[in-house]
Amino acid sequence: MKNIRILLIEDNRLLREGIISIMNEHDDLKVATAHGTNKTIYSKTESYKPDIMLLDIGLRNQNSLLLVKNLTKSFPDIRIVAMDLIPTQDDVYEFVKAGVFGFILKDATVKEFVKTIRTVAKGEKVLPSPLTDSLFSQIVNKTINGPDDTSSSELFDAVRLTKRELQVVKFISEGMTNKEIAKKLHISTYTIKSHVHNVLEKLALHSRVQIAQYAHTSKAFKKVIESISLLDDE
Fold this sequence. Notes:
By secondary structure, the chain is of the alpha/beta class. It has helices at residues 13-23, 41-48, 64-74, 89-98, 110-121, 129-132, 137-145, 152-159, 163-173, 178-185, 189-203, 208-217, 219-227; strands at 4-9, 29-35, 52-56, 79-84, 102-105.
């Protein structure tokens, strides 16, 4: 059985040593080298030629995203798996776009940890389990497989809206006032104003007219509202 050679970058020493111990308990996994910094990462990658790189995306005072971008250019055959405690959707999107093959949550079970590494070693992409059933996974699929008639960035903008914000956008596009929307959703006008403000910020828009135009013209928005029920409460 061919060993899966692993290069580990994790600045928490206790966690680093724990991962090494876990990996080396499996006959098909081998941590070839492990470090708490990325300072010598290029020379180590060249020397050890790992199949998998486990990379903590929260390295102190270090730009892990830039590192991923540069490594995937210099070593196109290496498969990078990002590690984080609770990655944000923005993090997942940016790191997948940069070239990582998967994510491992730091509170994952040993079984999940090992399965992720073996799966990535086979050339498959792996998302954190809390995100695999979410609408956000569509974004990653598009980033990996290429866009159709809807760009990944457009879909990313749309899916960042909460269900309530999507409802507000839809009702604004139908010409309803804040007071009418509040009555429709059984919440206060003040809350509606807050949702409108959030929508404007997330979509980088400046007026209700632009929100309505977005709802009527954005294919991404239409895809999102088709994927969920806007009649349900958040």
